[in-house]
Design a protein that fits this description.
- This protein has 129 residues and is mainly beta.
- It is built from one helix and eleven strands, in the order βββββββββαββ.
- Strands 2, 4, 5, 6, 9, 10 and 11 form a seven-stranded mixed β-sheet that branches.
- Strand 4 and strand 5 (46-51) form a beta hairpin.
């Protein structure tokens, strides 16, 4: 069992920056690839970014490429999402997810929330125009 706790969400103005954190705890928590997903009311859950268990491979949704950066600190078993140049359309509940996989992820694995084994409760990001 792995527990995930996100933090760092808040309300910011368009063009601003935020850094989200997700701390994982539990048995073998460091063996997991991690992903960030987001969901706004009335919309489907969308992939944002993912990172392999070692931190060597990263994956991004086209909508956030060049603006968001995912990183992982295995010593702290924490994954981060640095978000720059935020836009109102980035407003959503952001949550992290853990996938038990030490091999390099395929793009399909990285982008499909249903393939992840655990998910946190989320942290709200609101971007005002």
């Amino acid at each position: 069992q792995v527990q995930l706790v996100e933090s760092g969400g808040k309300t910011v103005h368009a063009g601003g920056s935020l850094k989200l954190s997700c701390v994982a705890s539990g048995r073998s928590a460091s063996d997991y690839a991690m992903g960030w997903f987001r969901q706004s009311p009335g919309n489907e859950r969308d992939f944002v970014a993912a990172i392999g268990w070692s931190g060597g491979s990263t994956y991004y949704a086209d909508s956030v490429k060049g603006r968001f950066t995912i990183s992982k600190d295995n010593a702290k078993i924490t994954v981060y999402l640095k978000m720059n140049n935020l836009k109102p359309e980035d407003t959503a509940l952001y949550y992290c997810a853990a996938l038990k996989e030490r091999r390099t992820l395929t793009t399909a694995q990285a982008m499909t929330s249903g393939r992840y084994d655990y998910r946190g409760q989320g942290t709200q990001v609101t971007v005002s125009s």
